[in-house]
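Example 3.2
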Amino acid sequence: MRCFPAFLLALAVALAPATVLARGKHVLWTVQGEQNTVYLLGSIHVLREGDAALSAVAERAYGDSERLVMEVDLDDPGETDPLAMLEVTQRLGLLPEGQSLRGILGSDYASLNRRAQQAGLDLAPLDRFAPWLVATTLLQIELARRGFSAELGLEQVLARRADDDDKPIQGLETTAQQLELLAGMPMPMQKHFLAMTLDESAELDREIGELVRAWKTGDTEALAGLLSDEFDEFPDLYRRLTVDRNRAWVDKLTELLDDRDDYLVVVGALHLVGDDSVVDLLEQQGYEVVQQ
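Structure, written as tokens:
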């Protein structure tokens, strides 16, 4: 992995549907059921000011859909209450009694702390935090410095719009389930993850730039390449964070294809490209999935 892992960018950064550029494609697919259409729209869950304007094809998909589906149900107060989210994060991110970040990092602690301080994060106050939470905290700091905010993200924008339009939202999973995937990493993997994040934080601008360019042009091959590059060192984590989730989601999406209502499904763009993606798994089941 060259920088912040793509799976964290996919969890942390949301990109609006692409405007029409050279390839004339969008990170948007359609799947036809017997009586309805399911639209698959790629995102990366935070945005900067002014980035959330929908393209014409995405506007049509939103207008055509009676219901929205997102990774997390943003209609559910339990998923949007900051105190509830803090409780879940602390429960999953605090180390057990008798363990410390310093102890887990061992002889690497001093060098990692120096690098963290250069990025604006002192590890000393975070000594009770698991390495995965320290890494994601660093990512959030770096993204905030660049003007990215979840409140400006596509999901939040669409959720507010759906509320005004009386369009219900349902979730494919919960925030707690997402965080449990990170918290479930073995400690050696968490340590490696944190070290790598600190090592390569200077490359974040380039990484985001490549991701955005591929997304805006609907370049699914480039997006898939970014994903495979990022997960080369973490095949087990790749399976847990992408393949296993994609398979669980596809079971739910095929149920939507038996409905009468049209659905707009908004998930991280990197779940929709490459082998074992949602698109690939639906095609394996015989569905025709068409990129717009």
